[in-house]
Each structure stands twice: as C-alpha cells, then as structure tokens.
Design a protein that fits this description.
Largest sheet of chain A: 7 strands, mixed
Helix content of chain A: under 10%
Number of helices of chain B: 0
Strand content of chain B: over 45%
Strand content of chain A: over 45%
Oligomer: heterodimer
Number of helices of chain A: 0
Shape of chain B: globular
Structural class of chain B: mainly beta
Helix content of chain B: under 10%
Largest sheet of chain B: 6 strands, mixed
Number of strands of chain B: 12
Distance between the termini of chain B: 41 Å
C-alpha cells in the first residue's frame, strides 16, 4: 500500500473556525490531490499539486486553499468552515511524471469533517 | 469537461452470482478509464485501468472490464461474486484537457448469502 497518512481522521468544528487537514506521503510522488466525497456526488477534486509550491484549482475549490512546502506534505485549509463543507476528505497521490490524468491514484483513508 | 455516469446507485446480488456494474462516460477524445473499489472506512483502491489496446482488461480480485467506444461504456464484471466483494465501486475518467480525473457517483454492492 502507498504510504499516505491523513490527519486528523475525525474532526468536529464550529462554523466560522479555520481548519487544516494534513496529508503526508512517503512515496516521493510528484502529484498530490485533495478530494471530497459526498453521497450522490462521488469524489470531487478540490485542489491538486504538481510539485513544491505548484498547485491548481479543481472542480470545487471555492472556500478552500492548499499549500505544499515540501514534497511529502500537502495541506488543505478551510479558512472559515461552513456546514456545506461537512464531508469526508481524501488525499491521493499519483506517480505520473508528466500528467495527472492518466496515472492511477493511491488514496489515504480519509478525514471525516463535521461542521456544526 | 468529461463526465461519468453510474446509472445504478445500489445493486444486490447473491453470492456466487455474476455481476455487472455499468459505467458511461462523456469525453471527446480517447479516455483513460479506471475502476476503483472502496470498503467502509477506507480510501479507494484501484481495480483496473484502460488506456489503449485490448478493450477487455483484467484487474485484481477477479474483476474485468470492457471498453466499448460505440456505447461510451466501461462496464465492470465478475463471473462469481464473493461476500467480500460487498463495497462501493467507482468509475473514473481521466481528461487530458482538464488534466484531472472525474469520478462517477458510485454503485454500492450488497452481497446476499
């Protein structure tokens, strides 16, 4: 299994508070992703990174920011959490060298976030 | 942008019966297609992928999928389902244009004894 660790695994927070989720990989892969999973929607891409300090928006990026200061760490921040951001968040990595669309993804075990 | 449709939200099959999970995609160019499986409380695990070549691809755990360009489909099959196959299954398509991967909403599989 790919070495991907997400922390925390569970978090409950209040509306309006900032939240940071962490993804740590030990595979030295170039691409890292944050997805959210909601019933009826499958997984939707929030942001992704194709290298240190190189990030781009995904399908549902509003209200989220990311940072990647080291190859192994990819942080997802909710600056001011809202109830609509209650979801399960998955980090994924891929070993694609030139692109992110044709390489299989390896997923962490997810972070369940509840915003009350 | 590309899109993926999994028409069946929930499927129930008896152990030992055959299984087919449907996946339809919308994408103008040659797609990169994937099937993933998710057990409760876990992340997704790759079952198989199709990039080019033989349209029938074999994956792990005895699964296979067939790419049919004329029908824009990539259905997942297994000849004989085991109780341990109960999980949620996701089809995904990779897009060169968007440089990302889009997932279907998933099909939950229940296996009856």
């Amino acid at each position: 299994d790919a070495g991907i660790t997400q922390s925390p695994r569970h978090k409950v927070t209040e509306t309006g508070t900032p939240v940071t989720l962490r993804c740590h990989q030990t595979e030295n892969h170039r691409y890292m992703y944050w997805y959210r999973q909601d019933p009826g929607h499958g997984l939707r891409l929030i942001h992704y990174s194709y290298g240190v300090k190189d990030t781009d928006k995904g399908e549902v990026s509003d209200g989220y920011s990311v940072s990647r200061s080291k190859t192994e760490d990819f942080l997802l921040t909710l600056e001011s959490a809202t109830s609509s951001q209650t979801s399960v968040y998955f980090c994924a990595i891929s070993d694609g060298t030139d692109s992110s669309y044709n390489s299989p993804l390896h997923f962490g075990n997810g972070t369940r976030l509840t915003v009350t | 942008a590309q899109s993926v449709t999994q028409p069946d939200i929930h499927i129930t099959v008896s152990e030992g019966a055959s299984l087919e999970l449907r996946c339809n995609y919308s994408y103008g160019a040659t797609p990169y297609l994937f099937w993933y499986v998710q057990s409760p409380g876990q992340g997704l695990q790759l079952l198989l992928k199709y990039f080019s070549g033989d349209t029938l691809v074999q994956g792990i755990k005895g699964f296979e999928a067939e790419f049919k360009r004329s029908q824009s489909s990539f259905n997942l099959r297994k000849p004989s389902v085991h109780w341990s196959d109960a999980a949620e299954y996701f089809c995904a398509v990779g897009s060169y244009n968007n440089n990302d991967m889009r997932f279907g909403a998933g099909t939950r599989l229940t296996v009856k004894p």
